[in-house]
Amino acid sequence: MFTGIVQAAVPVVGIVRKPQLITLTLSLPEPLRGGLAIGASIAVNGTCLTVTGFENDRVGFDVMMESLRLTNLGRLDVGSLVNVERAAHYGAEVGGHVLSGHVHGIAEIVAIERPDADNCVVRFRVPAPLVKYIMDKGYVALNGCSLTICDVQDGEFSVYLIPETLRVTVFGHSQVGDQVNLEVDSQTQAIVDTVERVLAARGY
C-alpha cells in the first residue's frame, strides 16, 4: 500500500531491455534506503515494483510486459527522473489517499499554466475507458502523486500544484505531451462499477 505522498524524484541510472522485460536501476538517496531488502515494494512513477537487487545507492527492479503495456516505465531513458515512494507501514499517516500502485492507464499532459510564481495548473487527457472514474474534487494518482481533480470536461481534467509538489516530484520538469501514469481512486471505481452492474441487471 502507498499513500501518494511522493518522497523524492530520483534518476534512472541503468536500463537493460529484453523482449517484454526491462530492468531499471535507480539511484536512491540514503533516507529511502533504510531497511531496504530484496522483495520490498517501492512505487516508481506510481507503479508498485519489487526490489530485485541493490548495492550502495543503486536499486534494481524488473518491469514485466503488463506493466510495460499500461505504464510509462518502458519510455524511460537513463537520466530520466521518476517519482518514488516506499511502501507505507501500518500506523503511518495517510497524507494523500490509499493507493495500490496498480496503474490503470496513461494520461497525457495537454496544457501547463503558471498564472504566477506560486501556482501551476496542469491539464490532462484521460483514456476514454477511465473517464467515468474522474469526478470533480475526487482523487487520482498521477505518477504516484495523490492529487485532487478539478475542472472535468470533455475527457480532460486539471490539477493544481503547489511549489512543494513541483520541488519534490517530476512535475517540476513536466512538459506538454508527457505521458503520466494514472491510478484512479479505488473507492470511486468500486462504486461506479457496482452501480453499472446493478442498473444493467435491472435493464437500465
TrEMBL record:
Pathway: Cofactor biosynthesis; riboflavin biosynthesis; riboflavin from 2-hydroxy-3-oxobutyl phosphate and 5-amino-6-(D-ribitylamino)uracil: step 2/2
Keyword Amino-acid biosynthesis: no
Keywords: Repeat, Riboflavin biosynthesis, Transferase
Lumazine-binding repeats mapped onto the chain: 1-97, 98-195
Residues of the Lumazine-binding domain: 1-97, 98-195
Official protein name in the record: Riboflavin synthase
SUPFAM superfamilies: Riboflavin synthase domain-like
Organism of derivation: Plasticicumulans acidivorans
Class of the enzyme per the UniProt entry, highest EC level: transferase
EC numbers for this chain: 2.5.1.9
Record-linked InterPro entries: ATP_synth_asu-like_sf, Lumazine-bd, Lumazine-bd_dom, Riboflavin_synthase-like_b-brl
Biological process according to GO: riboflavin biosynthetic process
Keyword Repeat: yes
Function: Catalyzes the dismutation of two molecules of 6,7-dimethyl-8-ribityllumazine, resulting in the formation of riboflavin and 5-amino-6-(D-ribitylamino)uracil.
Taxonomic lineage from the root: Bacteria, Pseudomonadati, Pseudomonadota, Gammaproteobacteria, Candidatus Competibacteraceae
Catalytic activity: 2 6,7-dimethyl-8-(1-D-ribityl)lumazine + H(+) = 5-amino-6-(D-ribitylamino)uracil + riboflavin
A GO MF label: riboflavin synthase activity
